[in-house]
Structures are given as C-alpha cells and as structure tokens.
Amino acid sequence: MSNLLHTGESMTTKPTTDARTRWGRIKFAGGRVPAMAIAIPAGLVLAVAAGALTLLTQVSEGEHALVVAGVTALVMSWGLIGLTWALVVDRASLQGAIDNPEESIESKWLDTAMAGALRDTIMLTGFALATLAITGFDIDALWALVGVILIAFSSTLVRYLMAKKRS
Q1: Cα–Cα nearest to 159, from 106, 110, 102, 107
Q2: In the prediction, which pLDDT does 88 show?
Q3: Which residues of the chain have a pLDDT value below 70?
C-alpha cells in the first residue's frame, strides 16, 4: 500500500502502456524491432540494386553511366524505403491507426462502388464490342484496354462519391 502512495497511483487505476509508436514495429520477430530499422537498410540495398541495374542494362554509356546509376539509386531510395516499410510494419503498432480499417464506412462505400463499377464495365465493354463487331471498325488493343480501365476507374469514382453524398 505504501508503494502506491509514493508513486502517485491509486488502487483503482492501472498504469497503461500503449506499445504503439509513430513509425511502428515489424510484424515478425516478436514485434520488438522498429520497422524503420529494417526498412531503411533494405530500401537502400534495393535502390543500389536499381542503380546497378542501369549499369548492367547500359542505360547510359561512357563517363555518365555512374552518374545515372547514382541518380537512379538516389531517386529510388525514398520510394523503396517506403515500400519496404509498408510491407514489414505491423499496423497494430502504429499510433493513430484504425484497428479494423476494413470495417469503416468508407470501406463499405468503396466495396459497393467497385461492385457496381464491375457491372458498368462489363455492360459498356459489351456494348462497345457489339458496336465494333457490327461496324467492322478496327481498334488497337492497347486503346481498347485503356478504355476499359478508364470506364472502371470513372465508374468507381462516381459511385463512391454518390455513396459518400448519400451518407
């Protein structure tokens, strides 16, 4: 009892320790290692490998080859560090992270928007296919696929914004 009085704690309160950190911890090895301790070295190694790849594929020849490799490694380092961090971090160890993001209302809006967008994409692609078959008009496959992607993205966006406005 005297220990409680000296530390300033009452008998009804428990000391809370939140193990969440700003940059999180890794998912494996018991979760004791900070995620950035893995992400920074691994991302830098991958960036150097990307720079070395420019040397191997002879993107630039002559005296500028090392400069191009160095710039490639420098530019790629930030993105590869971030990608590595995203792959190894345990979401439960991040401060301010939602525990179950898949249960949010935004996630439900997106699920319904994507389901509707699939129907829209199939319907519009079918109409386009029928029109092309009837008219005999040839279209490059690349542009046809770009059109399918644009239909899917735009339909998802419109449906998501409509669901957001309804709520």
Answers
A1: 110
A2: 86
A3: 1-19, 29-31
**Three-point CA angle 21, 24, 28, nearest 5°:** 135
Structure tokens at 149: 């992607």
DSSP 54-96: HHHTTSS-GGGHHHHHHHHHHHHHHHHHHHHHHHHB-GGGBTT
Output the 3-class SS for the chain.
Answer: CHHHHHHCCCCCCCCCCCCCECCCEECCHHHCCEHHHHHHHHHHHHHHHHHHHHHHCCCCCHHHHHHHHHHHHHHHHHHHHHHHHHHHECHHHECCCCCCHHHCHHHHHHHHHHHHHHHHHHHHHHHHHHHHHHHCCCCCHHHHHHHHHHHHHHHHHHHHHHHHHHC
Q: Helices 35-56 and 65-88 meet at what angle, rounded to 10?
A: 150
Q: How many CB atoms lie within 10 A of CB 99?
A: 7
Q: How far is 114 from 63, CA to CA, in rounded Å? A: 50
Contact assessment for residue 112 and residue 156, using Cβ atoms and an 8 Å cutoff: no
What CA–CA distances, in Å, run from 34 to 26, 91, 95, 98, 152?
6, 12, 13, 19, 39
- Predicted local confidence at residue 19, as pLDDT: 67
